[in-house]
Specification:
- This protein is α/β, with parallel strands linked by helices.
- The chain has 19 helices and 17 strands.
- It has 2 domains: 213 residues, Rossmann fold (3-Layer(aba) Sandwich); 214 residues, Nucleotidyltransferase, domain 5 (2-Layer Sandwich).
- Strands 3-4-5-2-6-7-1-8 form an 8-stranded mixed β-sheet, sandwiched between helices.
- The longest helix is centred in the N-terminal third of the chain and has 17 residues.
- The two termini are 43 Å apart.
- The C terminus is likely disordered.
Length: 509
């Protein structure tokens, strides 16, 4: 039996003494915390570094919100209370915000001691303990403002629903704690869909162990487990077979096995994996296996490129590839208009401004990506590398061609070293087959470039009746320009050297 710290044990005892089960088969009975719930409480309150943020993540229907309600009441009127303090819960919708308030208010009404000390204000979604001067209020991202607050305790409920790395509600609450001596934030949620989403960024930072005041309890099925197995389900669902109905969950697994369209949702919500509803062209594990730093091109290395021009005010991508030490080394370049990088970061919910500061994204001067600017950059690369051919998206090349001439490219060089590449099924399907094989066989190093990684996560496959494929973002948000450029570059390379690549199987979902 695990021994808990004095503070954690005190909190466990208080919950079990004063709280009642608010819903379900055990409705109204005193709480009996499971060992895994006690371990979470120990992780939060037994931390010698004084926990500032706790991240708790597991599959749905494991009583996340109920556990949040217990912790909230600990700080409202229990042994963790601070006189005259403000407590908040934050959710992305009014419905989700109301759920935590509803459970907490039910627990209060079921407990004679809590009911005698806590006032429930249904309309305002407020719980108030007059004796200690503590007040709890539920907030949602749909509220007009969260500024002017001074929280000592915050529950961020289902933060995984935030798309992108930023949330104005999260930032408003987290930056409002400066006047508090020991504020505590609890993030409790199933995982977000992508690595670039706010919850994923926070989890990855916590797992890196850089701040001892941040603790994380992550229950997830590892990628090497069969998604339909009990082992995978148990890894992400600590209540499986207890108050989480095992028969019902296994039926969900069977549904997902029979209907592949439901698998992504099952993996995200039940297995607590980072999986978008639209599965990407390349799986995260396969992409990660090729993340070694890209080696520099040698003086005589044949180099090939793919250029996705996009539009003049959008993301433009140029990807160069060359084989060094029997692997394709991938060197991408991305541009956005310098005057609108911050606007793009807000609209796309992607930290382009940070990528620019880190050197992964170039800012083209002005409000557009001027094609003369791109042509001049390409000219400098021809002087630097042994570039054999660049494949380009034919859309917009009529505008780029005169820019190449002005940049110093002779007409015959444009004719022989720039390869027109259609974006339809006919051209793209064999290019994807080639790229797929190289990633599957780990014959590619992309250096984990964050913008290219983002494009890889956003790129999904569209298939025609004949089974030919092309990349699209119709079922996924975000940019895919880098992956389109990479596929074109690999196609240009293999066409030029006449190599044949045969895939051993499908590595991509």
């Amino acid at each position: 039996m695990m021994t808990y710290s004095k503070r954690a044990q005190r909190n466990i005892d208080w919950i079990e003494k004063h709280c009642r089960i608010p819903e379900g088969l055990d409705y109204g009975r005193p709480v009996k915390l499971r060992d895994w719930q006690k371990e979470i409480i120990e992780r939060i309150y037994g931390n010698p570094s004084k926990t500032r943020r706790a991240i708790i993540s597991f599959g749905r229907k494991n009583a996340k919100t109920t556990l949040s309600a217990f912790l909230l009441l600990l700080h409202l009127c229990g042994p963790e209370r601070k006189p005259n303090s403000q407590l908040f819960s934050a959710a992305q919708s009014r419905e989700q915000a109301g759920l935590l308030f509803s459970l907490a208010s039910k627990i209060v009404r079921l407990s004679p001691v809590l009911d005698a000390h806590i006032a429930v204000r249904e309309t305002a979604k407020v719980l108030a303990c007059e004796h200690f001067g503590t007040v709890y209020r539920a907030l949602s991202a749909e509220a007009t403002t969260a500024y002017g607050l001074s929280p000592s305790f915050i529950v961020h409920d289902e933060l995984g629903q935030v798309k992108g790395p930023r949330s104005s509600l999260y930032e408003a609450l987290e930056t409002a704690t400066g006047a508090q001596a020991d504020p505590l934030s609890i993030i409790i949620s199933t995982q977000a869909a992508t690595n670039n989403d706010l919850l994923s960024v926070l989890i990855d930072d916590a797992l890196a162990g850089k701040d001892p005041r941040v603790v994380v309890a992550l229950y997830t099925a590892s990628e090497d487990l069969d998604p339909f197995s009990q082992e995978a389900i148990r890894a992400a669902n600590p209540a499986f077979g207890d108050f989480l109905n095992a028969t019902e969950v296994m039926a969900m697994a069977d549904d997902a096995r029979r209907m592949p369209a439901r698998q992504a949702e099952f993996e995200n919500l039940v297995l607590n994996r980072r999986v978008e509803a639209s599965a990407p062209f390349v799986s995260r594990p396969s992409w990660a296996l090729c993340s070694d730093p890209a080696l520099p091109f040698g003086d005589f290395t044949p180099v090939y490129g793919g250029l996705d021009l996009s539009s003049v005010n959008d993301l433009t991508a140029l990807v160069l590839v060359g084989k060094v030490k029997d692997k394709w080394q991938v060197h991408p370049t991305f541009w956005l208009p310098g005057d609108t990088i911050h606007d793009h970061a807000r609209s796309d919910r992607v930290p382009y401004d940070l990528f620019h500061k880190q050197g992964f994204l170039k800012a083209a001067p002005g409000k557009t990506v001027d094609y003369d600017f791109v042509a001049g950059y390409i000219r400098s690369l021809f002087d630097l590398y042994n570039i054999k051919r660049i494949a380009f998206d034919s859309w917009g090349f009529g505008h780029l061609r005169p820019c190449l001439v002005r940049a110093g490219f002779p007409e015959d060089m444009i004719e022989t070293q720039f390869l027109e590449f259609g974006q339809g099924f006919k051209s793209m399907s064999p290019a994807l087959h080639t790229l797929e094989a190289e990633i599957l066989n780990m014959r590619l190093n992309h250096g984990d470039h964050p913008v290219l990684k983002l494009c890889a996560a956003n790129a999904v496959v569209q298939m025609d009746p004949a089974g030919n494929r092309k990349l699209t973002k119709a079922k996924s948000s975000g940019r895919i320009d880098g992956m389109v450029a990479l596929a074109m570059a690999m196609s240009a390379a293999t066409q030029d050297v006449g190599e044949m690549f045969v895939t051993d199987g499908m590595a991509f979902a």
